[in-house]
Amino acid sequence: MLGKPVAHxxxxxxxxxxxxxxxxxxxxxxxxxxxxQRLPELLSGFGSEWVGVSVTMPGKHAALEFATxxxxxxRAVGAANxxxxxxxxxxxxxxTDVDGVxxxxxxxxxKPRTDRPAVxxxxxxxxxxxxxxxHQLRLSEVLFVVREPARAAGAMAAAQRAGLSAEARRxxxxxxxxLAATASVVINTAPADAVRPxxxxxxxxxSVLDVIYHPWPTPLAEAVLAGGGRVGT
Length: 233
Known about the structure:
Blueprint: E1 2-3, H1 11-21, E2 32-33, H2 39-44, E3 52-54, H3 60-66, E4 69-70, H4 72-77, E5 82-85, E6 91-94, H5 97-109, E7 118-121, H6 125-136, E8 141-146, H7 153-161, E9 165-170, H8 176-182, E10 185-188, H9 192-195, H10 199-202, E11 208-210, H11 219-226, E12 231-232
Parallel strand pairs: 1-2, 4-6, 7-8, 7-10, 8-9, 10-11, 11-12
Antiparallel strand pairs: 3-5, 5-6
Helix pairs in contact: 5-6, 6-7
């Protein structure tokens, strides 16, 4: 796993458990601190013993640029969290964050209504993946709530590449209760404390997904659970 910082990541626990379940007892999964600038040089030195790498922030955009080929969803997101080593020495980029978001929504919240927009709080890289996941969930519209609309430029572009209608709304101007009432699903990608003042209003949404999983439950998750709702992460 490449990123900076990565010491806190639970990915090794998850991946190693999967390897053991699949009988891949000689496979390893390690954390390697690397920022976006170091990533190309580091990957260029990896030999044939490497099957692939996971990439977290701040290297997801650099991973896509480094790859010799990419899946359609990685291109749509504009970033990659997975690089698979190819037989010719190249690397294939993918973004499994899309499956993570879509799968969590379906597993915990069920299929969202397609006649309402998704509300995505935040406009960073995870918001871009969330937008492409909304397309996978057969939604047609996404509304990003951000501090400044300019910060959502990347997420807006990802939504549009996925064929979605997209809008960015300023955080200070948001009517949080109305957003919750009209959303097919609320997906939070912003820091937990930033959303805390609006948690009670957002908790009334039909479906809520909070991608912030540590520490759990988040203020938003607590508000949803207190109201008898279901929240995924």
